[in-house]
Design brief:
Among the domains are: 206-338, Serine Threonine Protein Phosphatase 5, Tetratricopeptide repeat, CATH 1.25.40.10; 453-506, no CATH class; 515-642, no CATH class. It is 66% helix and 4% strand. The chain is built from 36 helices and six strands. Strands 2-1-3-4-5-6 form a six-stranded mixed beta sheet, covered by helices on one side. Strand 1 (515-519) and strand 2 form a beta hairpin. Helix 6 (75-82) packs across helix 8 (105-117), helix 14 (208-220) runs parallel beside helix 16 and helix 21 (310-322) runs parallel beside helix 23 (341-353). The two termini are 67 Å apart. This is (wild Malaysian banana) hypothetical protein. PPR repeats lie at residues 207-237, 238-272, 309-339, 340-374, 375-410. Belongs to the PPR family. PCMP-H subfamily.
């Protein structure tokens, strides 16, 4: 930016001496106090060096000496306007600082460096620092800390960060722990974790911030063992220390460790903050830990986190949905004072997962009425809702609407939903044609959806085509081989079943055993594995199942042995069915919870047809609500029926 005035404002008084004298004889002199007040009142009106010079000229013209006129200007504003302008404007600002009674020019520039380092363009702070160094302006601890902060936020600034590190040593600031912490953060942020660790190790008097910086960066890169080692070595920990570890465990798919550490945090008497609450709720969602999730929710309400933090509310919605409490999730959603597209999308997806497709579609209508624009995640939820309900035409309309009405380019998840929708509905040929016409290469999720449809509709040819692609894309996923084996078994093609099993053996693959978990009031997770007996109370559970089985038979239960795709006699097949993990977990829940209380189960595989039929009857015989979260969706069994309406 160039200055508009050709004449320096320092010369305005002499060049207009006569005019000033005439004006002074007609008007009373302006007091410095009133002039200063006027200047401050109009300070927001200058945004360029030219406007600044005009204001300064007016001050000098009023009769004030140069030093007083400079002092009357808002100097931080002067720094902000002139910092990155033309060299002449920068020099002009420095002359003003010299005329004023400001304690330190460095302090004035530091104020603006701080602002720039936190701005969307932190590189501007680096440009200003270079100009200050060239002009010989002294740097102090704060100058360097603001510059290092800007370096940590600028991708290409590692070389400059190293130069600033050298300057820290040269200026004798190596004992300032605040500055050293900023250096560690800069190195780690720019990916030089080895330099960060080297500096961390030689800092003699580390404070809690030093430890937190290093731990946080290790958790971000997934080096959780190193992070935990440092965490255990800390002489004292802050809430940020605990939160960094809990969030790291959650981020890297170790929710059990996250929950375990949160309980240690409680025992240590450390009160969680909002970030801790979000992290532990996310872990509860992954594990289906409803009781702990509820307890954290109560804490969030007491601390007004739910009332004031949209992110906390969104995580609560996700937690309740993934723990099988869609009604509670909807209550949190309805009580929110402010909602984002994440809130709407999470709730729409939650209704879809729980077999409440109509509610998902109604909520989308409300979302549009509220003026909220949907995003890609919203449409994933809508397409899931249509798929779980068999709403083929509605699903096709939503898929078209994405691009035509909202300009959203479909991603692989949307294509996968469409293949799932078509395959479930029995339109396997159309699903295959849809895959061929996709503008992106189909991944294992897309071909897996076609394979699932082939199993449901017993289409061997389509299953074989899907598996050919899946073996190329994901050769070590045992689930695909098992599904193909099941398709062959359904057709009685036992030689092909044996062939698939030999193929799995040759590739070192074993069928993943089915397991189910249930969490009781003590927040202890109990796990049951199909056909195994490791649980300490398994014999008691077996006896409980035998008693329950008699009641089910009186209600007409007949084991669906077609769900056992093994070449064995019917009695042996029945025994296999009776040891399925979800049945054992439900019996354990019936034995250890109060009458009338819902039972919530998590299962790693798809619920089989026999367990589905049995759980419907169990819900009727025991008058219990049984919620099962399997690999694909939720099943809510109540009064002898399931929320999926037997379409899964």
């Amino acid at each position: 930016m160039t200055c508009a005035l050709a004449v320096s404002p320092f010369q305005v008084v002499s060049s207009r001496k006569n005019a000033t004298a005439t004006q002074s004889s007609k008007e009373p002199p302006i007091s410095p106090a009133s002039l200063h007040a006027t200047t401050i009142a109009t300070a927001a009106d200058f945004f360029t060096p030219s406007q600044l010079q005009q204001l300064h000229a007016r001050l000098i013209k009023s009769g004030l000496p140069p030093s007083s006129s400079a002092s009357a200007l808002p100097l931080p504003r002067v720094a902000a306007v002139c910092a990155l302008s033309s060299p002449s404007a920068f020099s002009y600002a420095r002359r003003l600082f010299g005329l004023s009674d400001a304690a330190s020019e460095t302090v004035l520039w530091n104020s603006h460096l701080n602002t720039l380092s936190s701005s969307p363009s932190p590189a501007d702070a680096l440009a200003l620092f270079s100009r200050l160094r060239f002009a010989g302006v002294a740097s102090d601890v704060f100058t360097l800390s603001f510059v290092l902060k800007a370096c940590s936020r600028t991708p290409s600034a590692l070389p400059l960060g190293r130069a600033v590190h050298a300057l820290v040593e040269k200026l004798g600031f190596r004992s300032d722990v605040f500055l050293l912490n900023t250096l560690v953060h800069m190195y780690a942020s720019r990916g030089d974790i080895s330099a960060a660790r080297l500096l961390f190790d030689v800092i003699p008097a580390k404070d809690v911030v030093t430890w937190n910086i290093m731990i946080t960066h290790y958790t971000k890169t997934g080096e959780m063992e190193i992070a935990r080692h440092l965490f255990d070595l800390m002489p004292e920990r802050s809430v940020r220390s605990w939160t960094a570890m809990i969030a790291g465990y959650g981020q890297w798919k170790k929710p059990r460790e996250a929950v375990r550490l949160f309980r240690e945090m409680e025992s240590a008497g450390v009160q969680p903050n909002e970030v801790t609450v979000v992290a532990v709720l996310a872990a509860c969602a992954d594990l289906g830990e409803l009781d702990l999730g509820k307890r954290v929710h109560e804490f969030a309400k007491r601390c007004s986190f739910q009332k004031n933090n949209v992110r906390v509310c969104n995580t609560l919605i996700d937690m309740y949905i993934n723990c099988g409490c869609v009604e509670k999730a909807r209550q949190v959603f309805d009580e929110m004072a402010e909602r984002t597209v994440v809130s709407w999308s999470a709730m729409i997806g939650g209704h879809a997962m729980h077999g409440q497709g109509e509610e998902a579609l109604k909520l989308f209508s409300r979302m549009r009425e509220a003026g909220m624009e949907p995003n890609g995640v919203t449409f994933v939820g809508l397409l899931h809702a249509c798929s779980h309900m068999g709403l083929l035409e509605e699903g096709k309309r939503f898929f078209s609407s994405m691009t035509e009405d909202y300009g959203i380019v479909p991603e692989i998840e949307h294509y996968g939903c469409m293949v799932d929708l078509l395959s479930r509905a029995g339109f396997l040929e159309e699903a295959r044609e849809f895959i061929r016409e996709m503008p992106v290469k189909a991944n294992s999720v897309v071909w897996g959806a076609l394979l699932g449809g082939a199993k449901v509709h017993k289409n061997i040819n389509m299953g074989e085509e899907a598996i050919r692609h899946l073996v190329e894309l994901d050769p070590l996923n045992d689930g695909y081989y098992v599904v193909l084996s099941n398709i062959y078994a359904d057709a009685g093609r036992w030689e092909d079943v044996a062939k698939v099993r030999r193929m799995m053996k040759d590739r070192g693959l074993k069928k993943t055993p089915g397991w189910s978990t249930i969490s009781l009031d003590d927040e202890v997770v109990h796990e049951f594995v199909a056909g195994e007996s490791d649980h300490p109370r398994i014999e008691e559970v077996y006896r409980g199942w035998d008693e329950l089985l008699e009641k089910l038979r009186c209600r007409g239960y007949v084991p669906d042995t077609s769900a056992v795709l093994l070449d064995m006699d019917e009695k042996e097949k029945e025994k296999v069915l009776y040891r399925h993990s979800e049945k054992l977990a439900v019996v354990f829940g019936l034995m250890n919870t109060r009458a009338g209380r819902p039972i919530r189960i998590m299962k790693n595989l798809r619920v089989c047809s026999d367990c589905h039929a049995a759980l419907k009857l169990i819900s009727e015989v025991t008058d219990r609500e049984i919620v099962v979260r399997d690999r694909n969706r939720f099943h809510c069994f109540k009064h002898g029926s399931c929320s999926c309406r037997d379409y899964w």
